[in-house]
Amino acid sequence: MATQMAFLGIGLMGQAMTKNIVGKANLEKPLILWNRTQQRAQEHSSNIGHSLVATTVKEAVFSADIIWSCLQDQKAVTETFEEILKMDIRGKLFLESSTVVPDVTNRIAKEVEEAGAEFVAMPVFGEPSLAEKGKLICVPAGPEASVLRIKPYLVGVVAQAVIDLSGEEAGKASLLKIIGNVLIMTTMEACAEINVFAEKTGLGVKNAQKLIDNFPHAAAHTIYSTKMINGDYYKEEAMVEVKKARHLTAQVLELAKANNVSLKS
Ligand SMILES: NC(=O)c1ccc[n+]([C@@H]2O[C@H](COP(=O)([O-])OP(=O)(O)OC[C@H]3O[C@@H](n4cnc5c(N)ncnc54)[C@H](OP(=O)(O)O)[C@@H]3O)[C@@H](O)[C@H]2O)c1
Fold first, then answer.
1. Is the Cβ–Cβ distance between 118 and 146 less than 8 Å?
2. Where in the chain are the domains?
């Protein structure tokens, strides 16, 4: 029987990912979309086609075999799964792509599995413009058979690469995501310092960007620096809100402190 997929969370990442799922995954059945703010899901559904909007999270989960979620933060994930766990979810597979700390991921994985369903944690690396291009790096962890079931939706659909942690407990993927955020934060910090240095010395950010673009292995620096000097972080609807960046930084620092790791930068 054809697989029915639902996607929970039609934010910036969810919009980009679902556009690629509908466009490239050859879904036999229309993708079910659910978003807390329903209108956002409705508008997005009209844009991408081959999808329909569920009015409640329960309605989305009830009809689906695979339920993929990408929600703002831990609170959103916890609240959404509280709702889901009130239902009969036997036989369903949950694929969770939000950024959540390992303990919370492991707790939800356990609860979902005890309820007779499968759980794969799969945080992603790559901001929304990369997600739009289907160039995310996906980190799935959980039972091998479950990870195998979701592989057809990764490379060539939403992802350019998969860091496969199948067979590991789900929280290991969250751990890699949080540790990996250090790379993003230090890259942004380096770009910010170079750009300020270039402006204050009269070199100018355009000239600094020429070096950044041509520097070996500088793809990430190019992305963040281009956004910085184009003012993407100043726009009304920011690519990354400061409060989200602070939240992510706090997660990293808490985890580091709990493990006696000193992160000086
Ligand atoms: N943006 C990035 O660069 C990036 C990169 C990699 C990974 N991620 C991760 O991907 C996830 C989503 O990020 P995003 O950039 O798509 O965020 P976003 O644009 O702010 O979207 C957040 C989504 O979560 C929903 N939401 C918020 N609170 C909720 C709640 N209490 N209950 C149910 N739904 C709730 C929002 O619904 P409404 O529309 O109703 O507000 C929206 O659909 C995050 O965990 C983030 O860490 C982001």
1. yes
2. 5-168, 174-258
CATH topology of domain 5-168: Rossmann fold (3.40.50)
Per-residue pLDDT of 6-42, as tens digits, reads: 999 999 999 999 999 999 999 999 999 999 999 999 9
Runs of H (alpha helix) within 201-262: 205-214, 219-230, 242-258
CA of 206 to the centre of ligand 1 (A): 32
Query: 124-125 and 118-121: which strand pairing?
Result: unpaired
CA of 12 to the centre of ligand 1 (A): 7
Pocket of ligand 1 (CB under 6 A): 9-14, 35-37, 40, 70-73, 75-76, 79-80, 98-99, 124, 127-128, 240
Q: Whose CA is nearest to atom 39 of ligand 1?
A: 37
Calculate the alpha carbon distances from 132 to 11, 41, 65, 170, 179 in Å: 12, 17, 25, 26, 24
Q: Check if 133 is active-site.
A: no
Placement of tokens 């910036």 in the chain? 12
